[in-house]
Amino acid sequence: MLLRTTWLMLALFLWAAPAPLHAETDFVSPVVTRLNTEGYSVTEIKRTWLGRILITAINETYLREIV
């Protein structure tokens, strides 16, 4: 019984593990489009040391950093 449960859990894990790969990966384009429509000019797009995306944008008055 324990062996069957272990194999079932392993099969479920292997089946569900690739699911995040199918998630939306293009987060930058909609944000850049929105910033452009709000009058900002995107100056830099990079990854932080934690792997997050950092978008820096500027207009005549403000500097925005979006993580």
Set out the fold topology.
Layout lengths: L1 H15 L11 H10 L3 E7 L5 E6 L4 E4 L1
Give a short synopsis of this structure:
The chain has about 70 residues and is an alpha+beta fold. Helix content is about 35%, strand content about 25%.
Would you write up a description of this structure?
There is one protein chain. The chain has 67 residues and is an alpha+beta fold. It has a domain at 24-67. Helix content is 37%, strand content 25%. The protein is built from 2 helices and 3 strands. It has helices spanning 2-16, 28-37, and strands spanning 41-47, 53-58, 63-66. It has a 3-stranded antiparallel β-sheet with strand order 1-2-3, covered by helices on one side. A hairpin with a 5-residue loop joins strand 1 and strand 2. The longest helix is centred in the N-terminal third of the chain and has 15 residues, at 2-16. It is rod-shaped and about 70 Å long.
Please give a handful of descriptors for the protein shown.
single chain, 67 residues, alpha+beta, three-stranded antiparallel beta sheet, 2 helices, 37% helix, rod-shaped
Order of helices and strands: HHEEE
Termini separation: 47 Å
Instruction: Name the strands of the widest sheet in spatial order.
Output: 1-2-3
Largest sheet: 3 strands, antiparallel
Strand content: 25-35%
Number-wise, the strands total: 3
The helix tally amounts to 2
Rough outline: rod-shaped
User: Which oligomeric state applies?
Assistant: single chain
Low-confidence stretches: none
Taking all residues together, what is the mean pLDDT?
Answer: 83
Instruction: Report helical residue fraction.
Output: 25-40%
Mind telling me the C-alpha Rg?
Answer: 20 Å
Which structural category do the helix and sheet elements fall into? alpha+beta
